[in-house]
Amino acid sequence: MVSAATGTATIVLSYHLTAQAGHLPPGSTTPPISFLGAKQPEHTAYQIGFGLTGLLMGWCLHIWSRVILPELQSDGFELCASVAKWGGWTACFGACGQGLITLEPEIVEKLGMLGRAEISPQNGVHQLIALFFFVGAAVHCYSMTYALVCCNRESRLRQLSGPSSRALKLVVCAGTFLSAPVAEVLHPAARLSIGGARKMDIAGLAQYLTVGLYIAYFGLYSLDLLCYSRCSPQIKTAKD
């Protein structure tokens, strides 16, 4: 849950600093997350916050690899296990990397000039790394949820994930399935222009929801690990 709390706090703090400094794009109140870390003072908070979020997600995935990954494999979900593992590490890299390599400080002004200004390659690198997070998180969450839904009721994997955790994971996947396409289609990077403030705000809200849900999914493993600590004697007995 620490990674989820850190990611959420980073978005809230970066937004507060951006709004307080008057750095929000003209006419926009909820721009995409990337616009919350381009200038100082929010730039430093954005870098530190998302850098920590990525590292904490990595620690969470390390524990997942030691506890849950073997159960996926023993229950016959070898492909899901491999896909979820590499998707998770890709998401960790994306969360940390896009935080360290942000948009250039003048990105809002340049996008507002309708192609008359040269866009720095830094922006493309940032967007590419951010894409690693979204794709990796989606791959991890969907493959893991598929295994949880399809596994037998008596399986050890089902024992590791309680009813509340499974239900919340399904809600996360359903939410991101709807919000992620909206965020991508309406994002200014898709048109290389600011466009209407309304579209930017909708894209921003969709992205806040998508990122929040993905980070929450990783945080839900805390419930699974709690369940594991309670039922580990039974699991060991079943293995023996």
Textual characterization of the structure:
- This protein is mainly alpha-helical and 240 residues long.
- The protein is built from 10 helices and no strands.
- It has helices spanning 2-20, 42-67, 69-74, 78-100, 107-111, 121-150, 156-160, 163-186, 197-219, 221-239.
- The longest helix has 30 residues, at 121-150.
- The chain starts with a helix and ends with a helix.
Query: Given the helix and strand composition, which structural class is it?
Result: mainly alpha
Give the helix level as a range of percent.
Answer: over 70%
Low-pLDDT residue intervals, each spanning 5 or more residues: 234-240
Radius of gyration: 19 Å
Most strands sheet: none
* SSE pattern: HHHHHHHHHH
* Rounded average pLDDT: 85
* Discrete helix count: 10
Q: How much strand content do the residues show?
A: under 5%
Shape: elongated
Q: Cα distance, first to last residue?
A: 32 Å
Number of strands: 0
